[in-house]
Specification:
about 325 residues; binds nicotinamide-adenine-dinucleotide; Gfo/Idh/MocA_oxidoreduct; about 30% strand; six-stranded parallel β-sheet; globular; alpha/beta
Length: about 325
């Protein structure tokens, strides 16, 4: 096994890039930050981040980065609609990929990534950072003890006054809006915790404010082949933010709040301070460590490109269910 630090570049020096740059540079035995790469029009921001995180260089041209032979892996923090075309080109240039969620905006796009990963033999991991909180990890360890079938109820609400970045205004670019941005957090943990085959989705979405093209509310019901049932409510209109999951089984209940605080049958299991993670935290560091270990061990990362594709299939079914006014069989 190669224990040399992985030589890593980041493409997309926007809002979430700082959390990843913190993770890449946190443990020098895992990785060396080779480059921060941005578009030519954001030269100043790219250089500022490259300096702040002691990168070997700032790059202002994606093609130049892809042609570099001193980069093993790329962390990708670009808008949702750029994920698939960029991931395929990175894989074709011989570099592993840690892709921010969602893997892509459609199943068809996701398939291009899954295929490029298979053809190259390289690792693709999806950045579902919320799996990596201690509370979420413990929930996953305890969920089997609840028995089957399970019911899961997740309510994820934030208040977004206006689009924080241009591509949020476009439903095509963002993948809707609430579903494209926060759907992956809700759906990925449902699939991960229930660990059964999803069979059917019924959803309704709404736009309560006209600051964007996409939906700012989504409510859905997801059925699984073992009889488990999940409901999700994703909103960008919650002036009182909320992130609560309840998981019930025949033998007990889990309650996970903010992905960090966990109760089993009302008894505290994990309690952690809630701090915003946009500037980086232990979940992003644990996520990055999983990526490096998957590359070193030559195994699929968890979550893999296939895991990301399953999430995208449900995001797509939510939009299809809203359009058709019917449940969608997966
Ligand atoms: N894990 C999380 O909780 C979390 C939080 C925020 C964002 N995200 C995800 O991270 C990604 C980035 O989101 P953000 O909020 O940082 O967006 P952003 O708009 O702030 O940043 C995007 C960056 O990508 C660059 N970019 C745009 N088009 C590009 C192209 N064609 N090639 C190369 N670079 C390009 C932009 O210039 C910018 O630097 C999205 O996929 C989003 O869903 C995840």
């Amino acid at each position: 096994m190669n224990h040399q630090p992985l030589r890593v570049a980041l493409i997309g020096p926007g809002r979430i890039s700082v959390a990843h740059l913190d993770a890449i540079t946190h443990d020098s035995s895992l990785a060396t930050l080779v480059a921060v790469c941005g578009l030519p029009e954001e030269k100043e921001r790219t250089e500022e981040l490259a300096t702040r995180f002691s990168a070997e260089r700032a790059v202002h041209d994606t093609e130049e980065l892809l042609a570099s032979d001193d980069v093993d892996a790329v962390v990708v923090t670009v808008p949702n609609h750029v994920h698939a075309p960029l991931a395929v080109r990175i894989l074709q240039s011989g570099k592993h990929v840690l892709m921010e969620k969602p893997l892509a905006n459609s199943v068809t796009e996701s398939d291009t990534i899954v295929r490029a990963a298979e053809e190259s033999g390289l690792v693709v991991m999806v950045g579902q950072c919320r799996r990596f909180f201690r509370g979420a990890q413990q929930a996953r360890d305890l969920v089997e003890s609840l028995g089957r079938p399970l019911t899961v109820n997740h309510h994820l609400g934030v208040y977004v006054e206006d689009a924080a970045t241009d591509w949020w205004r476009s439903a095509r670019e963002a993948g809707g809006l609430a579903v494209g941005l926060n759907g992956p957090h809700v759906i990925d943990t449902m699939l991960w915790l229930v660990d059964a085959k999803p069979t059917r989705v019924y959803a309704q979405t709404r736009r309560l404010r006209d600051k964007w093209e996409g939906e700012d509310e989504a409510i859905f019901v997801l059925e699984f082949d073992d009889g488990s049932l999940a409901t999700g409510h994703i909103t960008l209109n919650a002036k009182e933010p909320v992130n609560l999951r309840w998981v019930n089984g025949p033998n007990g209940s889990l309650h996970l709040s903010d992905d960090r605080n966990l109760w089993r049958d009302g008894v505290p299991v994990v309690g952690e301070e809630i701090t915003p993670y946009i500037e980086g935290d232990a979940s992003f560091r644990a996520q990055f460590a999983e990526f490096v270990n998957a590359v070193r061990e030559g195994r699929p990362a968890r979550p893999s490109a296939e895991d990301g594709r399953r999430v995208v299939a449900i995001m797509e079914a939510i939009q299809a269910s809203q359009e058709k006014g019917q449940p969608i069989t997966l």
